[in-house]
Amino acid sequence: MSVLIFVDQLDGHIKKASHEALTYGAKIAEQTGDTAEAVVLGSVNEDLAALGQHGVKTVHHVQHDNLKQFDSQVYTKVIAQVAEQSGAKVIVFSNNSSGKALAPRVAVRLKAGLVSGATSLPDTSASGGFTVRKNVFSGKAFATVAIKTDVKVISLNVNAFTISTGEGTAEVVPFNATVDAPKTKTVASTKTSGKVTLTEADIVVSAGRGLKGPENWKMVEELADELGAALACSRPVADAHWRPHNEHVGQTGIAIAPNLYIAIGISGAIQHLAGVNRSKTIVVINKDAEAPFFKAADYGIVGDAFDIVPKITEAVKKVKGH
Ligand SMILES: Cc1cc2nc3c(=O)[nH]c(=O)nc-3n(C[C@H](O)[C@H](O)[C@H](O)COP(=O)(O)OP(=O)(O)OC[C@H]3O[C@@H](n4cnc5c(N)ncnc54)[C@H](O)[C@@H]3O)c2cc1C
């Protein structure tokens, strides 16, 4: 029996979220006395044997022209074949855009119970059954869910589990799967995200209507550049076309969980918090001491963003020796 982890990649590079999922899946295998195995679809520019560092013993590698473009239906069928042949009893995905498309489809195909958005290791003890903790109501509460089927599918929230790296090397085994032709074809794609992908970012610098206009984003970009951070914004900012919609976070935007979220001139409306309150550390900069965001903040600075943000950027530069 095995725990099978889907390794998500973009342009041949394995996503950070997949390293988290690999560590998570390997720990589940340790708990249940099974082996951890991974499945990689398409060409990757990285050493797959090195995934053994996370505790994975085998990497099933499926290569086929039809896998060049991500297609959830095609990928689902291939992952299900690998899961069935490797005797997987737990299949782990990242709860990112690919995982959200794949985990439910794979669960249906394998008649498996699914918990999406897991935040910690399952309780696999005899008394615990197989229960998984997950966020509900946009992170306002937790639910503990028992999976009752023999095969179980879990998608792990991004940034919910720390990557651990050891010594191991995995055996990379080509897997001969039946791969359907995709029913759709991407005819053009334009990269809209900034230098750092928002959903994968460790640090996010975000700004709101307090910045008064798009011409003032330079100082936000400078801080983000210094920190190696992704940019985000509140919804009115995107609605007003000050910033592109792919930076809009919140209930109706992208949900993120970086290690550090810096909110500049954002009031902290409940709809905004719904997309960012899983961040590990929240820093709020707002000139209104009564702004609701301060209640959710780990650190707060009351003051004028136009005064404070350049000072923080200078301080970061100094620390980095620039
Ligand atoms: C159904 C629904 C869904 C929604 N979904 C989302 C969503 O997904 N994401 C989202 O963000 N919003 C969403 N909203 C909108 C949300 O309710 C708020 O209106 C919005 O988040 C407010 O954006 P803001 O904080 O940038 O602006 P404001 O509420 O106008 O706040 C601006 C803040 O900047 C501060 N400020 C002003 N000048 C300065 C300065 N010089 N220095 C420092 N601080 C300053 C002010 O004190 C204020 O707190 C949704 C609303 C609805 C009804």
What does this protein structure show overall?
The chain is α/β, with parallel strands linked by helices and 322 residues long. It is built from eight helices and 16 strands. The protein has helices spanning 16-32, 72-85, 97-109, 218-227, 235-239, 270-276, 293-296, 305-320, and strands at residues 2-7, 9-10, 13-14, 35-41, 58-62, 88-94, 113-118, 131-136, 141-146, 152-156, 171-174, 203-207, 230-233, 260-264, 281-286, 299-302. The strands form four sheets. It has a seven-stranded parallel β-sheet, sandwiched between helices. A five-stranded parallel β-sheet has the order 13-12-14-15-16. The protein has a two-stranded antiparallel ribbon with strand order 2-3. Helix 2 packs across helix 3 and helix 4 runs parallel beside helix 8. The mean pLDDT is 95. Flavin-adenine dinucleotide binds next to helix 5, helix 6, strand 15 and helix 8.
Count up the helices: 8
Structural class: alpha/beta
Radius of gyration: 21 Å
Helical coverage, percent range: 25-40%
Q: Unreliable stretches, pLDDT < 50, 5 or more residues?
A: none
- Provide the β-strand percentage band: 15-25%
Order of helices and strands: EEEHEEHEHEEEEEEHEHEHEHEH
Oligomer: single chain
Q: Please state the overall shape, judged from the principal axes of the Cα atoms.
A: globular
Major sheet size, sense and barrel closure? 7 strands, parallel
* Strands, total number: 16
Distance between the termini: 52 Å
Ligands bound to this protein structure: flavin-adenine dinucleotide
Strand order of the largest sheet: 7-10-6-1-4-5-11
Instruction: Return the average pLDDT rounded to an integer.
Output: 95
